[in-house]
Specification:
mainly alpha; 7 strands; 24 helices
Length: 577
Amino acid sequence: MPTISFPRTSTGRVAALSVIAIPIGVLGALSAWVLVKLIGLLTSIALFQRVSTTPPPMSELHPGPWLFLVAAAGGLAVSLIARWVPTIRGHGIPEAMEAVVERQSVIDVPTAIGKPASASIAIGTGGPFGAEGPIVVTGSAIGSLLGQVLPVSPAERRILLACGAAAGTAGIFGTPFAAVLLPLELLLFEFSTRSLVPLFVAAAVATAIRSGLLDGGSFVPPMTFTPPHGLDLLWYVALGLICGLAAVVICKGLFWIEGGYRRLPIPEFWHPVIGALGFAAVGMVEPRALGVGYDVIGAELAGTIVGGALLALGIAKLLAWWVALGSGTSGGTLAPLLFIGGAFGGWLGSVAVHAGIPVDPRAFALVAMAAVFGASTRAVLTAIVFMIEIVAAPAMAVPLMLATAAAAIVATSLASDSLMTEKLTRRGLRIHHHAEVDVLRSARVSDVMSRDVVTIDAGMSVATAREVVADGPHSAYPLVTHDGALAGMVSRSDLLGDDGSDERPVDTIAATDVVAVPPTASVLEALETIVRESVEHVPVVDDRCLVGICTRTDVLRARARKIQDERPAPSLRRYRS
């Protein structure tokens, strides 16, 4: 009897990846702690002339001409590091996305060191950035480096890279759910048990390390919000629509400034210095626009900054962030977007209250943070969950969902690229953001296989089999017994190259160790078998009987059905009437 084997997938890899995610979570949390402390130390030394890892708030900064020298020195240092590691330029997440798509999730050691070092210098000398972009790169590098020394596939290394990003984000903010969602929406491009379980482990470990060992407190002080109900929710939909427009302005303004830097008749090396002088000029007028701005985000949510002062502060932060990040220096985007969105939303809330509209400006600030961030990055689920986690206010989920959805609709309608993808698009790299059902995983082999199969009788002579092969288009043919059982496979080369007697039974030269798939297997399993065995088709066997053949063309047929499903169809009502 021939040996028929079916391909099997190893679910044990999920457990293996989850075990590897444990040290990634630990290292991610420690890296986040080191980065925050380093930023605090450099800020204290450079801007307040004291040695401390907890600098005073920027409201206590008394800027003078020296601020330009400090900022320029920071920009020069970033440029020098960029000569060693060019990938440290920018806010980090697009570079991690590029590593996933273009370099099989490989991030090197210099990037892992250079990115947090350059970002710490840029922020410590007044750069209006957050620490989240750099820590995403650092955490991603930790996961990637482990994936390079351990025996994992490129796809599994991508999951480990995402685990590092989740661990770093959780280590900064202490928001485990949002930390899982961020790489899912921006880096991983996979939503499965294989990816989710290791991400949960890494984020949970990093959060536990942060809160239990590193004394990581709440990102903002605890506060209470009264959730809106009924028709009052319409005000948040309107807020979301406005925030969508604001997100488009924020992104396109940054892209325009980046284009302006590229057109400057001076070397790129000096661009971060020019950007540093630009944000220093803004800081001379409004010092609270400098640095990470976490304290200002908390004040926006607490409602201690209101009215025109809040709008002016948001505009100052936007200008400083535009001119700094557009220069190609090293920094993050999450905190600035929350800062700007909160200022804009809080101001709109104040205007609404003066107009007699019953809204809470603090709630407007909270919702606008999520809407602006979600619309700018297209990470809408991350934005909603992040804001719920940092204020511990699940009751605000409905207005957050409505506003962020409205903002995303506006932003995607007016701009094809997000803040994270525009740079990659300019390089010719298109990023597919949509998590959707893989038709190759969901379709069964029985749905696409060829049932009308040309077969050879196992008792047929070699000479007769040659006649069948001569008229057929395939390179190999299945041998079947009189009762339809698969007896083996014989190739065209086996028949044409045989020097024995033509009267011998063909099953004497056929391969009896046959790899087959059952009709209930997924089309993806069939494709994997075809690729692994380097064949053009694979037999489909049910209870040892041949029921069909799955070819590469059949695999494409499954994809064609998916394309057809996306096309507009006539109303079903016409067919039912």
